[in-house]
């Protein structure tokens, strides 16, 4: 991605360079897009996701999935947020979303707060993109800088959502093909499937594996027997169980870690499309690799998420900045609509002070992070390759993103978790820079169309 290095060169010593080299002009995403126009954006999003999580522990998985379902259907344009209009049938009622897409009201609420702070400035799709990252951070996953400046689409398509979103019942080849048509490779399939480390799926999405796999009258042989019996009790073989829920990663349900991959190695993937990653030598290699190296999963997940977030974006003069979730009539109406629906948010009177507290925590977090990184040096990089460029980039990224970083919610959140068990390594969100995937041997992606977390 061309903007990868910009944040570094955007700082003072390189200002002069930017005049000649920056491709930013317009039509491109920019890490600093809202720095002037909405400086508190990231804090407001973080607060919104955190508040929603306190009420509903499934929210992180729901937001992550919503972002995926948005980007996978005609690009990241906020189309998944749109209700049906007289001009089009929206995506909310498409089969992969109906009765399973969640988190709309969280984005709505954050949007309302942002309209108060910076009216008509921030697109819904950028909010959704940031919220998906906060969801990962809040769940113990990595953090990464996100280039911004996406604009909201004017339309949505139920048909496209039905056709383009991958299904948990599809063979790996088909899923890989759908990723490829969005510019994502096999590695992205494997890496983004790792999002199934959190969230739940409804029984109907995997029940075929429990009782009558592929018309055999038997369970899927690639399903661990103790998991099988536990799933059969969650999802008895009657239609009434179809919407019951089972965790995608039953070991660490709410924790964003690499246990998803360990489960696959143990024949304990929930969905057929998950376990299918072990059925192909190339993807199975990657699964083994991520099951052993949580840090590399974190790093690659960040990179694939940035790729995902860049699919088919609208920039410059394309699209619009939606006021709310309805597309606006193309010629912007006079100055009528400036105010937003605040009703649901009267309780947020104290958001200013909350943000101030978050800001202080953030600064402390950044300082601690720098010290930590200085102290651990190579340790944090693990795997030998310790290139200076990567290091510099990481520094730049974390500075840039510093304001946005720390996960103050986590400590508080941890208490509300039922199981947070994982002794696992990924715990501390490291500022993971956007890097071009360096691994030589892999490609592909798949994701979570299926869980309805
Ligand atoms: C809390 O979460 C539930 C779903 O678990 C949702 O129906 C409800 O609207 C949420 N309440 C608030 C205040 O967000
Ligand atoms: C997979 O893709 C092939 C070729 O497009 C198609 O014929 C087949 O029906 C698809 N399989 C499923 C289960 O969707
Ligand atoms: C399902 O059965 C068909 C025909 O019996 C077979 O070709 C196919 O490979 C099976 N699929 C799986 C995933 O086992
Ligand atoms: C995988 O299986 C091994 C051996 O049965 C077991 O020790 C380990 O706990 C399992 N891991 C997971 C994540 O289920
Ligand atoms: C950002 O938040 C700080 C702390 O609450 C506040 O003082 C400042 O006015 C806010 N800036 C904008 C532009 O809203």
TrEMBL record:
Family matches, as Pfam families: peroxidase
Catalytic reaction equation(s): 2 a phenolic donor + H2O2 = 2 a phenolic radical donor + 2 H2O
Binding site for heme b: 196
Any one of the GO BP annotations: response to oxidative stress
Cofactor(s) needed for function: heme b; Ca(2+)
UniProt: substrate binding residues: 166
Active site, UniProt feature: 69 (proton acceptor)
EC class name: oxidoreductase
Binding site for Ca(2+) 1: 70, 73, 75, 77, 79, 91
Cofactor note: Binds 1 heme b (iron(II)-protoporphyrin IX) group per subunit. Binds 2 calcium ions per subunit.
Transmembrane segment boundaries: 351-371
Keywords assigned: Calcium, Disulfide bond, Glycoprotein, Heme, Hydrogen peroxide, Iron, Membrane, Metal-binding, Oxidoreductase, Peroxidase, Signal, Transmembrane, Transmembrane helix
Cleaved signal peptide residues: 1-27
Ranges of compositional bias, category Low complexity: 425-437
Chain spans, region Disordered: 404-453
Residue numbers marked as site, Transition state stabilizer: 65
Domain of life: Eukaryota
Disulphide bridges: 38-118, 71-76, 203-235
Positions with a binding annotation for Ca(2+) 2: 197, 249, 252, 257
Family from the record: Belongs to the peroxidase family. Ascorbate peroxidase subfamily.
Protein name: peroxidase
Annotated source species: Nyssa sinensis
């Amino acid at each position: 991605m061309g903007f990868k290095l910009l944040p570094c060169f955007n700082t003072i010593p390189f200002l002069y360079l930017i005049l000649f080299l920056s491709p930013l002009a317009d039509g491109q995403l920019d890490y600093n897009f809202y720095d002037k126009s909405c400086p508190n954006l990231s804090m407001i999003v973080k607060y919104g996701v955190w508040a929603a999580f306190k009420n509903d522990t499934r929210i992180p998985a729901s937001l992550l999935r919503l972002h995926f379902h948005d980007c996978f259907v005609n690009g990241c344009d906020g189309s998944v947020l749109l209700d049906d209009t007289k001009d089009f049938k929206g995506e909310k009622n498409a089969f992969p979303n109906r009765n399973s897409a969640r988190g709309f009201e969280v984005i709505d609420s954050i949007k309302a707060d942002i309209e108060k702070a910076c009216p008509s400035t921030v697109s819904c799709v950028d909010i959704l993109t940031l919220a998906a990252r906060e969801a990962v951070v809040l769940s113990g996953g990595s953090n990464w800088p996100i280039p911004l400046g996406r604009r909201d689409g004017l339309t949505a398509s139920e048909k496209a959502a039905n056709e383009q979103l991958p299904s948990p019942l599809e063979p790996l080849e088909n899923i890989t093909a759908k990723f490829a048509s969005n510019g994502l490779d096999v590695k992205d399939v494997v890496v983004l499937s790792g999002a199934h480390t959190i969230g739940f799926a409804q029984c109907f999405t995997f029940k075929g594996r429990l009782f009558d796999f592929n018309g055999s009258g038997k369970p899927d042989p690639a399903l661990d027997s103790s998991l099988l019996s536990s799933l059969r009790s969650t999802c008895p073989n009657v239609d009434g169980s179809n919407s019951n829920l089972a965790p995608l990663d039953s070991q660490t349900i709410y924790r964003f870690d690499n246990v998803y991959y360990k489960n696959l190695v143990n024949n304990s993937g929930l969905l057929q499309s998950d376990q299918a990653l072990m059925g192909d030598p190339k993807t199975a290699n990657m699964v083994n690799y991520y099951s052993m190296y949580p840090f590399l999963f974190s790093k690659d997940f960040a990179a694939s998420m940035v790729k995902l977030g860049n699919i088919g974006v609208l920039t410059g003069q394309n699209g619009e900045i939606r006021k709310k979730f309805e597309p606006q009539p193309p010629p912007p109406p006079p100055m009528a609509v400036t105010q937003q629906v605040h009703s649901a948010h009267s309780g947020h009177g104290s958001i200013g002070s909350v943000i101030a507290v978050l800001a202080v925590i953030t600064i402390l977090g950044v300082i601690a992070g720098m010290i930590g990184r200085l102290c651990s040096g190579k340790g944090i990089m693990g795997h030998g390759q310790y290139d200076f460029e990567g290091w510099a980039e990481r520094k730049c990224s974390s500075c840039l993103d510093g304001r946005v970083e720390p996960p103050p919610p986590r400590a508080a959140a941890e208490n509300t978790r039922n199981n947070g068990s994982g002794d696992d390594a990924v715990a501390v969100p490291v500022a993971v820079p956007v890097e071009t995937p360096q691994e030589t041997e892999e490609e592909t992606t798949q994701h979570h169309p299926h869980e309805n977390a």
